[in-house]
Each structure stands twice: as C-alpha cells, then as structure tokens.
Predict the structure.
Amino acid sequence: MKILVTGGAGFIGSAVVRHIIQNTADSVINLDKLTYAGNLESLSDVSDNERYRFEQVDICDKAALENVFEKHQPDLVMHLAAESHVDRSIDGPAAFIETNIIGTYNLLEVSRAYWNQLDEVRKSAFRFHHISTDEVYGDLEGTTDLFTETTSYKPSSPYSASKASSDHLVRAWLRTYGFPTIVTNCSNNYGPYHFPEKLIPLMILNALDGKPLPVYGDGMQIRDWLYVEDHARALYTVVTQGEVGETYNIGGHNEKANIEVVKTLCALLEELVPEKPAGVNCYESLITYVADRPGHDVRYAIDASKIERELGWTPEETFETGLRKTVEWYLNNKTWWQRVLDGSYSMERLGVTAQ
Ligand code: NAD
C-alpha cells in the first residue's frame, strides 16, 4: 500500500514514517511544509529507502495537494500536519487556524475528490485517518473521570480549539459525503526526535546545560504520557485495521503531574550524567517555578480500553522504561539536537549558511 503521511517531518509523523518503512512492506509519501517543527534529519534512517518519497507542500495550497494525489495515487491518508505547540497558539493563533482548520478542510476536499474517482475496489479500501489530541476534551480538574470516545468537546486553548474544529470537519465529511474517515485522539507523546520547546526535551537539555528548569504554576498539572513509538504503532494499527467512522482514544495509562515528570528526569540524569555543569550540585536545584500558562488545563486522563479491546493494541513501554530510553537517546544524539538549537537544521534546508 501507498500511505500519504502529512506532517511526516514532525515529531510523531517521523516516528510513523520510520515505523512504516522499517516494519512493514508499505510505501510512504511524506507531505510536509517544513515549518520550524519539520526536520528531515529525523528521517535519516529511512530517507534512502526506495519506498520513501518526500514532497514539500503546504496543506493550505490546494493545487499543490492535487498534484501530489495525482502523482502518487495513495491508498491511505494519515493526517498529522498541524501547528502543535500550545504556548505558540496563545502568542499567535493565526497559523493554527490556517493550518489546523483551513489546511484540514483543503486536505479533506482534495482527498474526497481523489477518492470519488477511484475504482470500486480501491474506493472501498481507502481511509482518511485524522490524528488528533485528547486536549479537545478540555479539563478534568477535580474529578477522577477519564476521557472516553463519547466525552463532549470543551477545548481551552487556541491549539485545542483548532484541533477540535478539524475533528468536527472530518466527522462531518463522513456523515455528509460518506467519505471514509477515522479519528484518533491521543495523550501527550514523548520520545526521540522531540523538538526542544516541549516539556521533556526542554528539561533534559536545560539540565545538561545548567540552565533553569521552568515549571508552570505549582507543577501539579496532570497529563497522561505515551512513548511516541507506541503511538506510531497504534496509528498504523488503526489506519490498517480500524473501522470507518470510529474514534479511538490512545493513551499510556501514565498519569503524572508535571513536577513529578521533571523530578524523575532529574533523578535519571543524576544516574546517567553524574558530572554536572559548573556550579550545579544537583539537577533538582535547577527547578524554577514560573507564572502559569493562561487557561492552563489541570488534568487530562484517557481511557484507551476501546483500541486495546477492539484492535489488540497496548503500549510496550512503561513511563519508566520510555523515559530512560528518551534520556539515553538525547545523550547519544547530540548532533541532532545541537543542530536544532543552533538553527542549522533549517538554515541548510533553506540554502542559508550559518555565519
Ligand atoms: P510537530 O509540530 O512536531 O510536527 C508537525 C509537522 O507538520 C511538522 O513537520 C510541520 O512542518 C508540519 N506542518 C505544519 N504546518 C504544515 C502545513 N501547513 N502543511 C504541511 N505541513 C505542515 O507535531 P507532532 O507533535 O508531531 O504532532 C503531530 C500531530 O499529532 C498533530 O496533529 C498533533 O495535533 C497531534 N498530536 C500530538 C501530540 C503530542 O503530544 N505531540 C499528542 C496528540 C496528538
């Protein structure tokens, strides 16, 4: 099968592309605009493979999308391209509205026109899989409830509102046009190749550099954490075996307060990197509480029993094993993150030379 993956140069998308190329016989067309979050160096293990192709395209550019469908004739679409960082959505929501809502609308329309002209066999096998977040469900503060596939939407941030909007569009295209869509909503991912603006890589790299570890508010915000390779495997399972029209929640059974995550990382670093930067006695002493994010949700927790029961997927990593692997990966892959931090990963791509 030929699978069109949008956002395949991002954190989760690149894990999906690596998973498909390394573990299946399928081909991948990676369609990505290469925003600041897109990094082709995350695909260096698979980019020489003859089953891998890359197209630098913006999902807001309808004509360019049509060309990609015409040229590559995909059997399945996995849609991950998005603006994904909550803090950036608060500072500048426009790109989130453009890419996450208008871009998804464009992709739905181009995919539907393409699907309509397929022969009956290919048409009935086609799937449009929309990858979304548990943040669309809002805040579970003060309850012990879990998000299920029927929980009402109550997004809090411009990011989660834009993802909620795109989820609604995808479901409307199923209901109105019979277009074969599937939606997955997943909890927080962590693991290799994570852009250093996100909590876990930011804390690892700041600690190694002896910089403050900024924790929002009292650090008691609870998130469920899933190792990114477990998510990639879940997504491939859903796009190949999931039921059209269904939603599957994906999560790791790892509810942790942010401060607990940061302290666990500090303990791992004490063990793995005992020689600390000058002036640092212990990594935990770098923890610095900062003003909370506006509208910050207090607790997310996900019930992933449907995908486990119906599709037989379960996470392979516990939080402890996944976090250790992640810290070890950052310690062993300095070139990848140093080139992200100094900007050279994108400057070379743009033909600009570092001064
Ligand atoms: P990311 O920011 O690391 O990657 C996004 C990718 O999309 C980048 O490669 C970027 O270049 C590309 N992109 C952005 N705008 C584009 C456009 N207009 N056209 C084409 N490509 C564009 O994001 P991620 O963390 O890998 O998340 C991927 C998807 O999974 C997103 O839809 C996100 O909402 C969802 N998700 C993320 C998490 C998480 O914890 N990171 C959890 C659940 C769901």
